[in-house]
């Protein structure tokens, strides 16, 4: 049996005020083309399908077209669980009515305990249990149980599910959680503060495969069969070196056989460029991937006017600029020289950029006087 | 064949800051109980299922439980169209996947041209065409047609549908529009300004039954078989005398047989009470329906402190107060006496209400002086 395990689509996500919907569509298109050529028995999406509980209309339309193509046209069932970004009730509308068309949206505990059973020649009956994302308070409330951490909540939920096991079936779990010891990325929203969101992988040992969502880096944790597929695409510059895609899993009558990461490529990659402004611009002139979403770290030591405009002449999708070089310069000068001197220097840089000429002696004197005056008055305030 | 025609549920509506969801749930419960005792072949909801394009989660949960009970438990198909209050794309998510469970949500023109066909012994095959609400711009854009009014848009859409007719089938249309000459209520949101939203009933003559939504008063227009079911319940005080409910329609092999209005009663009716404060309070003490949602028109001629608090001691759900009596009093005095005199009177009323005693002669003099002073200074300003 072939299982396509994906998660964290975050449809409708904005990145530095840019909509990622077209990139998301293009990446999902690759996933659909893969299924066309390499049919699978089921597609699992382990939560965070949308980026927020009330997703934009365009994200809903995209998901609608995707389920139409995968469930209806490719005749491949899909199982979704709600993640911490999804609005469970909103996502779950019509879930009961969609089941017969092979679209299974598991967003509440009742549905959690009724597995989706898929029967194949290669693995027999396999029961898919979806554990919708819930915080410990919801679990405590729903099961009237002493539960105060995510770990205790998962222990309880996993226990409820294993009680349902049918000995003649293999069992797959879909869950959205933070398994202890796994690697974070900086585009995930913490489930709770201070590490209390961590869950032991040991609750999951009885399953034949565990399809996890939440962490954006593909990885396995504890056992070969307990895996994060990682997010559909990069959602932060910190993920620039992560290989995004989905996990292709194989099960047979005895359970887990193998898992393989299949790469997907977004039209715009997220990358970090470092260098002096002139170097970065020069490089951009011949960069075949010049439309990528970029964070540029400028190493110039002087102030630059309109660096975004200059960079975007070659890299149209620069989304953010950092200037570590310039900041180091200021700090060094602060240590070496008086504050008034350094601020005059800054102004001289600015004047050159803005006017294309240097300050006259009189102008420099005037600026210097003003800065001294301001500095004196602010020191007076500090003393008071 | 028995058709239950309803419309304008407006799930999630607020009325004077009060959620109507519990009332909506109770009224729909009556509708469900009716179907249990008197099975029907299909339930049509002619638009404005939700009150707004992004409905509150609780409204989504209510609709979800309703479709589960009607489609799944009572095994009765439902056909929805989107109205001007609904978010068509949002409502339409998963529509394709829900069809096999008997839930048909028609929210775009593609689905409009593919009828839901229901076959019964009593009427043979009946084709149900849903025309999702669209303004003329959307129709012009979608069909690349010269359309500038709602009437032209409906002519075109009805024409597209009648082209699809299969001679062996009866045909039912579900539409959300304002048929020319029909009676408005004050809880409908106008489709456009200045009467350009009116549609002739003549476009609909070729159908065997036309299930309309948008207008909140149950009524027929043009022909016996062209009908508004009216809204699920009252949504304004102006509708206090309207009989709310649904329309029960019968078709046979030759088409329309009969239509009957079946009444539904909300736990809280919307009513207007008129009288002096003391009378209204007296009446409230023995009013068995004292929890209704009320607009109270006070006929007292003097100012009253905290009338809402006083009324709510007997009628807890007074939502709005009008004081026509007091306003007439003020206007009359304005005409007869000087402004300064009338404001002193107002203050005397207030003082009695607040302190339970009358102004002393000195107090009255002081207030009168202040009012004169203020009045003189404001007249000075007007002259300047």
From TrEMBL, chains A, B:
Give the signal sequence positions.
none
One GO term in the molecular function aspect is: 3'-5' exonuclease activity
- Domain Nuclease SbcCD subunit D C-terminal: where? 267-353
Q: Which domain of life is it from?
A: Bacteria
User: One Pfam family, short name please?
Assistant: Metallophos
Q: Where is the Calcineurin-like phosphoesterase domain?
A: 1-218
Subunit composition and interactions: Heterodimer of SbcC and SbcD.
Query: How is this protein named in the record?
Result: Nuclease SbcCD subunit D
What is the native source organism of this protein? Answer: Thalassotalea algicola
Upper lineage is:
Bacteria, Pseudomonadati, Pseudomonadota, Gammaproteobacteria, Alteromonadales
* Name of encoding gene: sbcD
């Amino acid at each position: 049996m072939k299982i396509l395990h994906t998660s964290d689509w975050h449809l409708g996500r904005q990145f530095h005020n840019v909509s990622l919907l077209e990139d998301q569509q293009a990446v999902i298109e690759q996933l659909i083309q893969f299924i066309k050529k390499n049919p699978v028995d089921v597609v699992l999406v382990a939560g965070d399908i949308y980026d927020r509980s009330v997703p934009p209309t365009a994200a809903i339309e995209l998901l609608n077209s995707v389920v139409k193509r995968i469930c209806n046209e490719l005749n491949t069932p899909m199982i979704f669980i709600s993640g911490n970004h999804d609005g469970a009730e909103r996502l779950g509308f019509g879930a009961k009515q969609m089941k017969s068309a092979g679209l299974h949206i598991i967003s509440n505990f009742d549905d959690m305990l009724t597995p989706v059973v898929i029967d194949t020649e290669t693995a027999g009956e396999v029961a898919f249990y979806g554990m919708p994302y819930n915080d410990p308070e919801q679990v405590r409330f729903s099961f009237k149980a002493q539960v105060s951490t995510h770990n205790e909540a998962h222990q309880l939920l996993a226990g409820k599910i294993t009680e349902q096991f049918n000995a003649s079936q293999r069992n797959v779990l879909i869950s959205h959680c933070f398994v202890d010891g796994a690697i974070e990325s900086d585009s995930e929203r913490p489930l709770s503060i201070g590490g209390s969101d961590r869950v032991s992988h040991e609750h999951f040992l009885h399953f034949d495969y565990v399809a996890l969502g939440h962490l954006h880096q593909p990885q396995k944790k504890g056992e070969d069969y307990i895996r994060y597929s990682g997010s559909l695409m990069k959602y932060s510059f910190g993920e620039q070196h992560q290989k995004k895609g989905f996990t292709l899993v194989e099960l047979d009558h005895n359970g887990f056989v193998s898992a393989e990461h299949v790469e997907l490529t977004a039209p715009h990659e997220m990358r970090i460029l470092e260098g002096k402004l002139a170097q970065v611009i020069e490089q951009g002139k011949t960069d075949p991937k010049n439309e990528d979403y970029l964070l540029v770290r400028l190493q110039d030591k002087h102030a630059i006017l309109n660096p975004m405009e200059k960079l975007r002449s070659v890299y149209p999708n620069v989304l953010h600029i950092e200037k570590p070089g310039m900041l180091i310069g200021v700090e060094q000068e602060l240590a070496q020289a008086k504050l008034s001197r350094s601020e005059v220097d800054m102004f001289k840089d600015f004047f050159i950029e803005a006017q294309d000429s240097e300050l006259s002696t009189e102008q420099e004197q005037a600026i210097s006087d003003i800065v001294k005056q301001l500095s004196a008055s602010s020191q007076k305030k500090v003393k008071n």
